[in-house]
Amino acid sequence: MMSPRLLIALTLLTFLVSAGFVATRISHGVDTNILSLLPGDAKDPVTAAAMEKASAVASNRVAFAIEGGTSTTRSVAAAKLEAALIASGQYRSSSEDAKDLWKWLFAHRAEFICAGDRIKLEAGEGAAVAQQALLEWYAPMSSARGEMIKTDPLLRTNRLLGCLLPKSLTSMPEGEAQIVSGSIVSPVYSLDVQDSIAAVIAVWHAEADAQGLTLSRAGAVFHAAYGAEHARREISLISGITTVAVLLFYWMMFRSLRAPLIAVGMVIYSLTVGLAASLAVFGSVHAMALVFGAALIGMVVDYTTYYLVTGLAHPDHSPQMRKAQIFRPLTLGMLTSVAAFAALFFFPVDAFRQIALFGGVGLMAAWMGTLVLTPVAEGHPMRVGPGALFTKKYAGQFLGGTYSGKVLAFVILAALLIVGAALLRGETLDDVRRFQAPSPVLVKEEVHLRALIGFMPSNTFVLVRGATRDEATMREEAFLKKLNAQSEGDAVVLASSRFDPSETLRARDRDLIRTMLIEPHLPRVLETLGERNAKVYDEAPQDKVPPLFVSGLRGETDNVFWSIVPVSDGALKMPEMEGISLVNPAQRYSALLGKYRYLSTYGLAGAVIATGIMLLFIYRSAASLKILMPTILALIVTPALLALLGVPYSFFSTMGLFLVVGAGVDYAIFQWENPGQEGDWTRVGIVLAAAMTCISVGLLGLSSVLPVRSFGLTVAIGILISLLFSPLLRSSLAKAGFGGKAGFGGKYDD
Amino acid sequence: MGNATGIARKAGALFALISGLGIGVAQASCPAPDKLKATSFERHFIQEKHVSGLNKPLRSEGQMSVSEKEIVWHMSKPFDVKTTMSSTGITQSVDGGEPVSVGPESSDIAGGIAKSMASMMRGEWSTLEKIFVVDASPVPAEGDWVVRLTPHDERLGALIGKITIHGCTDVNQVNIERPDGDGETIRFDPVKL
């Protein structure tokens, strides 16, 4: 047996180590990507990896339009903005991509070809292609350069650049706007990256606003920053109100500042340890996990409350005796809650796994802290406050009652009616597009930019698979050819095979260019230009690695080589081809969420059964299963009631119900363990604990993010119903000899 | 007398000639570059491209015509190629053949450049200000005015360089200087309305 002092020292050491770890990691360890709240596709890892890549490709692009002022001020402001973004270390200008592309195309100028030129060469019209090059040399303001006389007299590179890049990237913006575009090189969902970009823009505005310039932005980083800012505000609001509520409630219960200080201390202790565990295992923690963490406050203080309340009931008992009184229900309650959190581990959503670890470890820390630190921090028992007396008298009267079978039948009938009404009127929600309302300001700016430059990242893509890289590339080429044949080629935003074709096509084109263009027509071009180096195209390309924006469209998962072809959103008539499929991430995530909603609903039944087995194992009595009755009723009534109130049933509702199983069972366990008059003060603790949870978690109902809102409302109402129905577990206990006087619709032990 | 009369006549003629020249100098002072004479016109041009690495410049000539509907750059020497740019697209006709639509290989930048050229010839400086810093030096008492165009966008600047336009009642000459030392000069004959 470990000595108490050593136990205290170890508990405090755990806190200090955790706090140090959190302090060093939290600044760059917060993920704000709402997609992290969505499930991965465990059955199809290739699609899951491709969706992740597509999201990264689409999310790291940024574009700015500077308008107003004069052309000179716009030009200067654009240069300053781009310079500041580059200096931040988070940004790469589009011109860098252009340079890389130029080098790549130049290296492969004798083996890559534009589709139109291929047709001409195949038709024996190489002279026309060579003529075009000559015309370019003579054209005013053309892109032909002196250095190309010796390296690329047929201007193959310029021609490839013209035909391979989408028109939207080579056209000039309409109107009087200066465009700055590029990509964010760091994870855009990282808070410090968002803060860094926001700081650059704020500094830019400070100077540019005075010159009458305006800035429009487009890019996922701005939406992520908007979401993160909301999450920050929500965390502050929930934490702030909960802290005030804790102080107020505890003061009214115990008439001492020690109680709220102990409670707040326990919250800090538990959340810090839980957060450290989550950061240590996952490397980062999602912003929503932090919001859920704020909701955990209410559950964490429960344990402290149960201990402190024993001091009101038995001020003469020693700390050891008081700990013994709550040890079994507290431990059982903690285990059932941790089990409920652990159930979140079975869902393939990292954010939920973080919440599971954060919540589970946090609750274990709260349990340990309550038993080890709270008795030391408390010193001597506290006094009974007016709130405690009030709660004992009224709430205790209700919760302590023993209700007849008629009341139970009435409650069950009412529950069934609510469920019936909900089935008629309620709705389910799986559509990810309805999860978070985007910033109207950002949406307006993006629409404006779309009108100016025409190009915006697309989330829909065609996924191409192959057993080898070359097979995947050949399939992509065949797909693009078919799409062109059905006049839908314009739907393709970008395709890696255009810039890095298959070996087969490359060899064919190399041969075609040599035999139909270089050998018969280069001499005439050189002669016209006054140059003699006929071996200019003989050197084999050295550059084997395509530019980043090309290689970024490709991947390999479980020995399957794949590539993504972003296509403009909308209906695309997909040709039936092997290894080719259209992926709409929003639809796919929605379908997956629907599937997980079903699975998790079944999982709830599993959680109830697991809790029942745990109760049977601890109590070794079939009667102990009555502890589950209030929770089961809460599980049925809560989503039905919310559906009638207009909150749809979603995967996130089921996640909340898992916590209702864990935390709601606690109240029933304490009711079960402390029947009759002995339990009067315990019921005060239960009411205080439930109130804390309802306030802290219920405030999530104010969140702008539907998953969070749905989760918060579900937990808060589920907990409330669990509390209100908890006396029902005694509806037949009277027969076991507990007796009592008539209470609210039943009997009250006096 | 006869001689005196003859001398007087000659002197009068000389005076009149000198006076006329004087008047002529005063009248030849160019209008401001934003008051060009013609917006629709046909001009003969001679272009010389100075390309580093080549011993002699690439010389071409032909007709440029600008109307409300289209811009035509018709190079007749050393090749006969007629490039027509209109709101419906860009076409090219070689050796008097059928106009063929120019594919995506000639990007929209070419169209943009052609439009810019038309704006220069029409003196539409405010239109050009969207792309260039337009620096119009004061109209000199004698000789052509000069307008300098520098692209706002550095990338475009690297592509087409700095442009200097000389003109009086119309644009007479366009000089282009590239950062890499290449350059070109386009000289226009007077306007045929």
Architecture blueprint of SSEs:
The complex is a heterodimer of chains A (750) and B (193).
Chain A (H helix, E strand, L loop, with lengths): L3 H22 L4 E2 L13 H15 L1 E8 L2 H17 L3 E3 H14 L7 H8 L3 H13 L9 H4 L4 H9 L2 H4 L6 E8 L6 H18 L4 E6 L1 H35 L3 H25 L2 E2 H27 L5 H25 L6 H23 L1 H5 L7 H14 L1 E2 L2 H21 L14 H14 L7 E6 L2 H17 L10 H4 L3 H27 L18 H4 L2 E4 L2 E7 L13 E4 L1 H35 L8 H17 L6 H23 L6 H19 L7 H20 L15 E2 L4 E2 L2
Parallel strand pairs in A: 1-6
Antiparallel strand pairs in A: 2-4, 2-5, 3-4, 7-13, 8-10, 8-11, 9-10, 12-13
Chain B lengths: L1 H27 L12 E10 L7 E9 L3 E8 L3 E6 L2 E6 L5 E2 L6 H15 L2 H4 L3 E5 L8 E7 L2 H7 L1 E6 L3 E7 L5 E6 L5
Antiparallel strand pairs in B: 1-2, 1-11, 2-3, 3-4, 4-5, 5-6, 7-8, 8-9, 9-10, 10-11
Write up what this structure looks like.
The complex is a heterodimer of chains A (750) and B (193). Chain A is of the alpha+beta class and 750 residues long. Chain A has a domain of 397 residues: Up-down Bundle (Multidrug efflux transporter AcrB transmembrane fold). In chain A, the strands form four sheets. A four-stranded antiparallel beta sheet of chain A has the order 3-4-2-5, with helices on both faces. Chain A has a four-stranded antiparallel beta sheet with strand order 9-10-8-11, with helices on both faces. In chain A, helix 13 runs antiparallel to helix 27, helix 17 crosses helix 27 and helix 26 runs parallel beside helix 28. Chain A is elongated. The two termini of chain A are 40 Å apart. Chain B folds into two domains: 29 residues; 117 residues, Lipoprotein localisation LolA/LolB/LppX (outer membrane lipoprotein receptor (LolB), chain A, Clam), CATH 2.50.20.10. Chain B is globular and about 45 Å long. The N terminus of chain B is likely disordered. The chains are: A alpha+beta (750), B alpha+beta (193). At the A-B interface, helix 3, helix 6 and helix 8 of A face helix 2, strand 7 and helix 4 of B.
